[in-house]
Amino acid sequence: MAKLQWGMIGGGEGSQIGPAHRLGALADGLFDLTAGALDHRPEAGREYGQRLGIAADRSYGDWKEMLEGEKKRGDDAIDLVTVATPNSTHFEITKAFLEAGFNVLCEKPMTVTVEEGEEIVKIAEKTGKVCAVNYCYTAYPMVRQARAMVANGEIGKVRCVVTEFSHGHHGDATDAENPRVRWRYDPAMAGVSGQFADCGIHALNMASFICNDEVVKLSADFASCIASRELEDDAMVNFRMAGGTVGRLWTSSVAIGRQHGFMIQIFGETGGLKWFSEQPNQLIYTPVGGRTQIIEKGEGGLYPEAERLQRVGIAHPEGFPLAVANIYCDIAAAIRGEERKDLPTAEAGARSMAAVHYSVASAKNGGEWVDARPPMFR
């Protein structure tokens, strides 16, 4: 099967997320990196792209040049573009490439407003192109195992979900003016939300993904534990799902002692599940009245949804870049016409942005319960 042509916008030299995308996209031989506009500095982007093996005529100075250049190539154009630029640019770039007939993988958040999120959903539906959002934690094999166990009734009807995404890396008040930290709490750069928009939406998306259910209403409490910050660095969100599941979510960047701190527990009528990102090879399962069990990635008897995303044997960690690789595997399949219900699409991106904005509104009004859905899904 011929490799798909892949292009990247952003994620240049020194980027945190760029290497994860390049490792992920190329891991399974499904894509070749053939085009890119990798840096906001045109010449630096061109030079770095060529060092990565991109041909000089497809190592572009900016995304607009890349869009025009790839449109002119016709059947030889890229099959997929990844958008890994600052949040405020996601909508414009994603919209332009979708409308031009390209498949898109966008970093989260997909947009910065609810209206933009809804527009991307509509454009993706109209064009018939794949528009995915990089909620890559949903692509760990044992997360897919958890989703399959819930779907197959192994823990009964889900009663309650508890999820956290909390770290302490912004907990030092003396470091609050560090430019690499400060922008995350500056509305001019981060938008309406800080920690919840950065990490909390991963946890909320994970709850929806494993339960195969959607959040319909929520109540939020936001706090700026470091007083100089305009946006929240700690948040608690209570939520309810369409199927009646109760949800509790805590996210924080001032939880000193936490390194990554992404955890989810699913409590059903006949059992419970727990997954923790710092031990991603393991899924903890407790049947009602029974002993707690550790289900390991790579062992026999897993659901096909988990088995197909494993590359190395039991006890060998695959880690974050290969979770990103699993997203690319699903995208490649979707581009080739296969149905991939596990792929996080533009709808997930729009729902996340609605949750951010309505959580902000709830927090400003003393935690009142609000509808968490984008208007188009009400």
Order of helix and strand elements from N to C terminus: EHEHHEHEHEHEHHHEEEEEEEHHHE
> What is the overall pLDDT average?
96
* CA(first)-CA(last) distance: 42 Å
Shape: globular
In percent terms, what proportion of residues is strand? 15-25%
The biggest sheet amounts to: 9 strands, mixed
Helix content: 25-40%
Widest sheet, order of strands: 13-12-11-10-6-9-8-7-14
Number of helices: 12
Overall strand count: 14
For this structure, the quaternary state is: single chain
Strand pairing plus helix content: what structural class?
alpha/beta
**C-alpha-based Rg, rounded:** 20 Å
Low-confidence stretches: none
Report on this model:
This protein is of the alpha/beta class. Helix content is 34%, strand content 22%. It is built from twelve helices and 14 strands. The chain has helices at residues 18-26, 42-51, 63-71, 90-99, 114-127, 141-151, 179-182, 187-190, 195-211, 304-307, 319-335, 346-364, and strands at residues 4-10, 31-37, 80-84, 103-106, 131-133, 158-166, 215-223, 234-241, 246-252, 262-268, 271-276, 282-287, 293-296, 370-371. A nine-stranded mixed beta sheet has the order 13-12-11-10-6-9-8-7-14. A five-stranded parallel beta sheet has the order 2-1-3-4-5, with helices on both faces. β12 (282-287) and β13 (293-296) form a beta hairpin. The longest helix has 19 residues, at 346-364. It is globular. The chain starts with a strand and ends in a 7-residue tail after the last strand.
